[in-house]
Amino acid sequence: DAKTTQPNSMESNEEEPVHLPCNHSTISGTDYIHWYRQLPSQGPEYVIHGLTSNVNNRMASLAIAEDRKSSTLILHRATLRDAAVYYCILLYSGGGADGLTFGKGTHLIIQP
Amino acid sequence: DAGVTQSPTHLIKTRGQQVTLRCSPKSGHDTVSWYQQALGQGPQFIFQYYEEEERQRGNFPDRFSGHQFPNYSSELNVNALLLGDSALYLCASSLAWNSQTDGYTFGSGTRLTVV
Fold first, then answer.
1. A97–B contact, CB cutoff 8 A
2. What does the pLDDT average to over B17-21?
C-alpha cells in the first residue's frame, strides 16, 4: 500500500487558517487522496478527498501538488471544535470498497 | 438519518473469553468494515464485508471473525481474548460502488477492555 507521511502534531490559534501537510511520494495514478479527522472519543469523520484538482467543501479545502506527491488540507478559519487528529489516506480508485490504511495522523491543537 | 450504530459502547471481558460486537450501517450503505484502534494509534483495518461475504482482510489472526446479515448489519467476533485485544473497535459503512468518492461513515466505537 502507498504510504503517507504527516507531522505528528501542529498547533494553531483560533480563527486563523491551518495548513496540514501530507507527503505521499509513492502515490499511483489511480489513488484518491482522502482526509479524515477524529475528534476525542469519536470515530473518524470524512473531511474531503481529491484526485488531481484542488477541492473545496463546507469543511475544508484540499490543495494537491501538480506531481501529486504531496497535498495540504486547509482549514480556513480554525475553531476549538477543529482540534482533532487528522489522517491523510490514499485510496485505490480501481473499483470496489477498500479498507482504509491509517497512519498516526497529525494531532492538531487549537489555542484560544 | 441515523449514521452508523455500534453496540455495546463499553465492554469488559476476561482473558480467554469470547466477545461479539454489533454494527448497524448507515441507511443506504451495503458494505461494513471493522477497525481496531489501540490507545494513541490510528485505526487498523480488520476486515470488510459485502454481500454477506468477507471481501478483504487485514493482518489479524483467525480469532477475529465476522458476519454480515441480509439487512447489511454486521457482527465482529473475537475468540480467546488476549490482554492485547483491549482497544476501541470501530465499524465503518460505505456504498461499495462509490466508496472512493463518497467516503466511509464511522460509528463511535465499542471500547473493549480485557482483564
1. yes
2. 98
Q: Is the CA virtual torsion B50, B34, A38, A33 positive or negative?
A: negative
Nearest CB among B35, B96, B107 relative to A97 is that of B96
Contacts of A41 in chain B (CB under 8 A): 108
Question: What pLDDT, in 10s, does the model give residues A24-68?
Answer: 999 988 889 999 999 998 999 999 999 999 999 998 999 999 999
Cα distance between the two ends of chain B: 37
Cell numbers for A87: 489522517
C-alpha distances out from residue B79 to A107, B14, B86, Å: 33, 11, 13
How buried is residue A45: exposed, middle or buried, by Cβ count under 10 Å (0-12/13-18/19+)?
middle
Better-predicted residue by pLDDT, A53 or A2: A53
pLDDT in the model for residue A92: 76
What's the confidence (pLDDT) of residue B102? 75
Which of A32, A34, A43 faces B90 most closely, judged by CB atoms?
A43
Strand ranges (DSSP E) for chain A? 9-13, 18-23, 31-38, 45-50, 55-56, 61-64, 70-75, 84-92, 106-111
